[in-house]
Amino acid sequence: MSEAPAATQSFDVAIVGGGMVGATLSVALAPLGLRIALIEAIPQTSAAQPSFDERTTALSNGSRRILETLGVWRQVGAFATPIRKIHVSDQGRFGFARIDAAEQGLAAMGYVVPNRALGNALWPRLQQSAGVRVFCPAEVGEITAGEAAVALAVVQGGAQLKIDAKLVVAADGVQSVVRSAFGVEVQLRDYEQTAIVTTVLPQRFHDHVAYERFTPGGPLALLPLENGRCALVLTLAAAMTEAAMAWPDQEFLAEVQRRFGFRLGRFLKVGRRVAYPLSLSRATRTSSGRCVIIGNAAQGLHPVAGMGFNLGLRDAASLAELVAERVGQADSDPGSAALLAAYDAWRSADRSGVIAFTDGLVRLFASPLGGVRRLRNLGLLAFDLLPPAKAALSRLSSGAMGRVPKLARGVPLR
Q: Which of 100, 133, 385, 404 has its CA 20 to 30 A from that of 125?
């Protein structure tokens, strides 16, 4: 006697990808009384989980407010280091720019947070939420888009489960399987650079200053951490990566010193190094059928300005708000064409502005032309003298250039 086929489990929203953006969206939607499925391939506590590894993330004030409104910032904030000032310079040139949080009327320009702290705050909330069903470790197999719902085959523990959802959210990263299944193409630009991410201990205390240093070999970022340490993102030409990863610690620190200078004294120690190839990826659409594309699945950015995760978090906050607005209404379908169109329109300006700004920085400071270098040097000097320009950049980095999501304004969804 053959077994009866397993019954299909029905959900309002299925979120594929439980990294920082997907997990935040799940936490935001959990109180709305919807049936939410979260599908993630790698457990949050696994050393193989790329979203919650030893890296750190720079959170804007808008992102902090999103996490605060969701009730997770208190736990995350215990591990956060405030950025009081930002210092931008161009190696070999006298121009520089400074942004001071106090001058902007802010307690901090942002906060540097260990990714593991974010995972440890978000995932327990998910597992305690009655409205969220977590499939992990699990992978999505076949995806079939229907007129009223999307059918997904979920492989978990060697067994295949069937679920359907009115809305599917692609939060599964740059190589998104869900995005591809819905036929959304991606525009790619290989920067032919690699970011080496690690921590360093400088001789002098960082005074909560974040440094962005542009060099002929690529940008270098130092972000303040607890105990006087700094998170380092060193960008190198891709051809140098293998050699740089093999350098002894002292040789690596000497290269960092050569590029950064002695503003923080000598660099004394370096942690474990991890290399990440750099490129710009941009989905040609942010929705298709009953699918919305968010976070790195929608856009993967160069880390030069630290805006990628903050942009993705605003994706999640905007989508959660649109879904919340329709709960209980006659047209409460979270995958309706009207909701997806509203999401596309909302995210367009913020997304385009941040992508253009980040890509423009990479191109501008990568140019070896003397005329361009002189112009950008003058630009840094002018920026340092113009408070309105600093205020505009502050608004851009926090997503305050257009419609700001409720969560980023400290307003609960319900």
A: 404
